[in-house]
Amino acid sequence: MNLASLSIAELKRALVVGELSACDIASQTLANIEHHNPALNAWTRVTQERMLQEADRLDRLKREGQSLPVLVAVPYAVKNLFDVAGHSTLAGASLFSNRTVARQDAWAVHKLAASGGLLSGMLNMDAYAYGFTTENSHYGATHNPHDLARIAGGSSGGSAAAVAAGVVHFSLGTDTNGSIRVPASLCGIFGLKPTFGRLSRSGSHPFVASLDHIGPFARRVSDLTQVYDALQGRDAQDSFQAERAMQPVTPLLECGMEGLRCGVLGGYFQQWCDDDARLAVAQAAKALNASEEIVLPEAELARAAAFIITASEGGNHYLPALRSSPECFEPLSRERLLAGAMIPSAWYVQAQRFRRHFQQQVLARFAEVDVLIAPATPTSATLIGQETMRINGSDL
């Protein structure tokens, strides 16, 4: 049975009726990783022993007639930024090659294990989660499953490639300024960056504490919502987590689109896109009956503010290591992180003030619409090693 052709719900049904066992699923997934990963370079570590042990435990639950958890025997993997007990969290960087192994799972990994998920391993990423291509100088580039000569996007490129290749049903990534949305778009799958503070980040080593999110990737929206629901829950260890009750979203898929008000972001969001990206937005807008164009005049300033916040927080986060062990950083990463650490504090404060101002502008628009549609990337996946892209006659 081809696991990739099954949704999470279909996989569970096959398990319940005995067409598949959890051990079958684990073995097939591990074989697929062995077959596909040399070309993809998505996995930096395979957790084979853990996966087989968990599969055996789930099969025993079924034989004993116990109730099966919602994600029972669903194979997944996580960005190598999430702690996995017994393994080192590498964050895509040679700096952490000798890092002590994690004593416990990250909160999200713990939640997924409790929901029955089968962890297959840890995935490639841009070093320190600071990049958009997953062309990693230490662990190599991750390749796009649709065209191995092209990037998978980043920084969660391994997370997107693993799902797009059909090897696992879902994966976890993180997003500061697009690190879930960009690779999901370039690999042709679904990615969710939830509301800030909605999901716990404990054990996920945030790069920019005031901006980072965790979120899932999947090939189906129904799979994405089930994983998101499984990740919800209050974690007292995460001081950034919002005080909100759990709000399951999977039941909302039955509601349809009646009454849904959709708008299309124009101006800056359309200006720096190629024709294919504009066409994709137009097709989505047509499907959602979105005709109103909404312009946010200060969107470009918001982008600048986001990059100031990212560079400043990220650079200062790693400044002690940059001072004590500069030779452990890849040259490009060292240069970018040092530049960020030198950003004047007044710039950072002003960027955070503008962030709040822009948030209020955007929130006001949701009095008019429920959904804002925008391109996730300005173009489709570029070639690995390509340093510029041509948009509207300009090389960027």
From TrEMBL:
Residues 26-388 form the Amidase domain. InterPro entries: Amidase, Amidase_dom, AS_sf, Carboxybiuret_hydro_AtzE. Keywords: Hydrolase. GO terms for molecular function: biuret amidohydrolase activity. Its EC number is 3.5.1.84. It comes from the Bacteria. Gene3D superfamilies: Amidase signature (AS) domain. It is an enzyme of class 3 (hydrolase). Signal peptide: none annotated. This is Biuret hydrolase. It comes from Candidatus Erwinia dacicola.
